[in-house]
Write a structure and sequence with these properties.
The structure holds 2 protein chains of 2 kinds.
Chain A: E1 5-7, E2 10-13, E3 19-24, E4 31-37, E5 44-50, E6 53-56, E7 65-68, E8 75-79, E9 88-95, E10 105-106, E11 110-114
Parallel strand pairs in A: 2-11
Antiparallel strand pairs in A: 1-3, 3-8, 4-5, 4-9, 5-6, 7-8, 9-10, 9-11
Chain B: E1 3-5, E2 10-14, E3 19-21, E4 24-26, E5 33-39, E6 46-52, E7 60-61, E8 64-69, E9 74-79, E10 88-98, E11 101-106, E12 110-115
Parallel strand pairs in B: 2-12
Antiparallel strand pairs in B: 1-4, 3-9, 5-6, 5-10, 7-8, 8-9, 10-11, 10-12
Classes of the chains: A mainly beta, B mainly beta.
């Protein structure tokens, strides 16, 4: 089966510009996650969707970050305006459901550099 | 507070030897799950192994095994017969209920380098 797809793979922008990332989860996966991974750290959850509804966005900087999953399938994550500290890899993951043991499958990530 | 600690920033192992990557966790929950992921230089997180808090047997997946010591709150990953392709970052993660939803929190990772 096809894995989690993300695009673009790399993006370089200047601070205060806007950027958007796209994620297409594995077919049939109801739960979708966006993580931010800063260099040298483990991934940190930004937002979790169950179908097209937000389950958890407690760690999403809502003044500049937004995300949507309108039809319960693919999702976009936007940053507007970007700051230098947003430089990181943005990972999308999906799972069949949100239960304790459900494995999360990760995409290849988008590496964002803000200059 | 829920927390995952990986105290080894980097590890070396000789090819074909076994290596143990340490992970300790902190939670007051009785029900939780422990995961190990591998992240090669390409960036993708690859699931390796899972252990549930109620599982009495240590999990094994091929060359990977999880040494689960519940009383000590440790979940060390053992890789047997190391291969050059095992060189990567390894992350321990815990899934538990936080703020009314299941969340996966990661440790800071251990970089493993396999020497030929």
């Amino acid at each position: 089966e096809a894995g989690v797809a993300q695009s673009p793979r790399y993006k370089i922008i200047e601070k205060r510009q806007s950027v958007a990332f796209w994620c297409n989860p594995i077919s049939g996966h109801a739960t979708l996650y966006w993580y931010q991974q800063i260099l040298g750290q483990g991934p940190k959850l930004l937002i979790q969707f169950q179908n097209n509804g937000v389950v958890d966005d407690s760690q999403l900087p809502k003044d500049r970050f937004s995300a949507e999953r309108l039809k319960g399938v693919d999702s976009t994550l936007k940053i507007q305006p970007a700051k230098l500290e947003d430089s990181a890899v943005y990972l999308c993951a999906s799972s069949l459901a949100a239960g304790l043991s459900y494995e999360q499958y990760f995409g290849p990530g988008t590496r964002l550099t803000v200059t | 507070a829920q927390k995952i600690t990986q105290t080894q920033p980097g590890m070396f192992v000789q090819e074909k030897e076994a290596v143990t990557l340490d992970c300790t966790y902190d939670t007051s929950d009785q029900s939780y799950g422990l995961f190990w992921y591998k992240q090669p230089s390409s960036g993708e997180m690859i699931f390796l192994i899972y252990q549930g808090s109620y599982d009495e047997q240590n999990a094994t997946e091929g060359r990977y095994s999880l040494n689960f010591q519940k009383a000590r709150k440790s979940a060390n990953l053992v890789i047997s017969a190391s291969q050059l392709g095992d060189s990567a970052m390894y992350f321990c993660a815990m899934r538990a209920v936080m703020d009314s939803s299941y969340k996966l929190i990661f440790g800071s990772g251990t970089r493993l380098l396999v020497r030929p």
